[in-house]
Amino acid sequence: MAPMMRYLPAATAAVITVFAVLVFQRYRARGGTHLLLWGIGLTMFGIASLAEAYSTLAWNPAAFRLWYLAGAILNAAWLGQGTVFLLSRRKRVARTLFALLVLGSVLAAWLVFTIPLNAARFTPQETLSAQYREILPRSALVRRLTPIFNIYGLMTLVGGALYSAWLLRRKEIVPTRVIGNILIAAGGLALGFASTLVRFGLADYLYVGELIAAVLMFAGFLLVSTRLPVRAGRPEVLPT
């Protein structure tokens, strides 16, 4: 691992912490299940980044388990679920998907925190993404569940942001919010692309992808959440 790579998870955690605080503040001020779930998803992202930062120094089984659960499995799905609540016209569908996500998250947490780990395979000289396959048993059920959460998260987060951008562009409402949603989608794609590189042996780029994703999504959120005056007869669409 290149020396500079050691600092990227801490930088990502700093960006995500500010991002999550702003989202929770907006939730307290305006309410909205989507904001609550985004805040939870971002908190998971931040926890995973802190666990990565710690693991560049030393081994800790709790840090590894938190990284895998909050980062590799859950955070994208919870962010995506927030977007489902924002966009869904049928809240019963959104609530059903949320119930399934909660049950799946509980199952994933139980599996992650009960599975034996091969600590002897850990080295702080490599990123967690480069060595987690050696630390987790190959037969672990949670490794088969991970792609399901990630695919759901990628589809809902990126797809939802692009759909919002399309709606706003079609109605010619607030161009900055169109750009903001595109940035959020780009951030989700950056994270998904970096995760794909892990499978091709380029695990070091995951830390770069995470930082890029954090910055893009944060910038996108700031753009879409800017309060602007509403024109007469043209109500805001998809407020965040």
Structural class: mainly alpha
Shape: globular
What is the fold named in CATH at topology level? Rhopdopsin 7-helix transmembrane proteins
- Please report which band the strand proportion falls in: under 5%, 5-15%, 15-25%, 25-35%, 35-45% or over 45%: under 5%
The counted number of beta strands is: 0
Report the CATH architecture: Up-down Bundle
Number of helices: 8
Give the CATH class. Answer: Mainly Alpha
Percent range of helical residues: over 70%
Which residue ranges are poorly predicted, with pLDDT under 50 across at least 5 consecutive positions?
Answer: 232-240
Radius of gyration: 18 Å
Query: What gap, in angstroms, lies between the N and C termini?
Result: 39 Å
Helices and strands, in order, run as HHHHHHHH
For the report, how would you describe the main beta sheet? Answer: none
Query: How many domains, as an integer?
Result: 1
| Average pLDDT figure | 86
Write the layout of secondary structure elements.
Elements: H1 8-30, H2 33-55, H3 61-87, H4 91-114, H5 128-135, H6 141-170, H7 175-199, H8 205-224
Helix pairs in contact: 1-2, 1-8, 2-3, 3-4, 3-6, 4-6, 6-7, 7-8
Structure in words:
This protein has 240 residues and is mainly α. It has one domain: Rhopdopsin 7-helix transmembrane proteins (Up-down Bundle). Helix content is 75%, strand content 0%. It has eight helices and no strands. Helix 1 (8-30) runs parallel beside helix 8 and helix 3 packs parallel to helix 6 (141-170). The chain is globular and about 55 Å long. It starts with 7 loop residues before the first helix and ends in a 16-residue tail after the last helix. Mean pLDDT is 86; it is low at 232-240.
